Amino acid sequence: MTIDIPQPAAASSAPDYPEWKHANPDGRFSDWLKASVAENWHRVTHHPFTDAWGKAAIPKRNLENYLIQDHRFIDRFVALLAAAVSRAPTLKDRIPGCQFLALLTGAENTYFERCFVALGVTDEARATQPDWPATSDFKQLMADAANGTSYADMLAVLAVAEGTYLGWADRVNRSLTERPEDFWYAEWLDLHVGAYFESVVGYLNDQLDQVGPTLSASDRNGCLSFFARATELEVRFFDTAWGSAQ
User: Fold this and answer.
1) Could you tell me which of 233, 234, 226, 218 has the C-alpha nearest to residue 16?
2) Would the pTM count as exceeding 0.70?
3) Which of 6, 66, 132, 222 has the most CB atoms around its CB within 10 Å?
4) Confidence of residue 122 (pLDDT cuts 50, 70, 90)
5) Which domains are assigned to the chain?
């Protein structure tokens, strides 16, 4: 599967959805959201931190900091995804989200715990390192979406979190000349590429494509605001991860 990655453009460069849809009749609501944040989407999926990840070239301190901070998203993300599952319109729409919850609380959480042991990251270091501002802000954004009543807003944050990771991991994975030997590099890529993860991102986008066109102008703007804020925070998170020990 080829991953469509928006190319650099001015932030919020797309017109409002009805106008954009008229000019792009085959385009989907999720395509419009990505087109509206194309510059930041490209910055996330082509970030130097991600290139260094594929080369197994993250300085150890940066790696440890990134893992500590990224692991802190799981709790809020699980709560957000569970809230979205509760808002899905039918059982058929709930099942893929429920299945992904099992992976997050199983294989993904276990990956982090194994990394901390292998890298010698102590419980004290994990507990005492303060949240980066981007971490704190992203956790709050997930909480705001989960505590709201808008299924579209919940989906917007989830679609950014998983869509950008598919974007960068797929790109990096396809560019590898050899697989990283350390499991913390290789398995993080494995968790974010392949048919199953593509299906998760496809599910989130499909849900957005169902609900998005039915939104009022005000609700559509709110959905875009969550989507744009989440993309901006992904950029900030990678910027901090790359610069935290440079």
Assistant:
1) 218
2) yes
3) 66
4) very high
5) 48-243 (1.20.910.10)
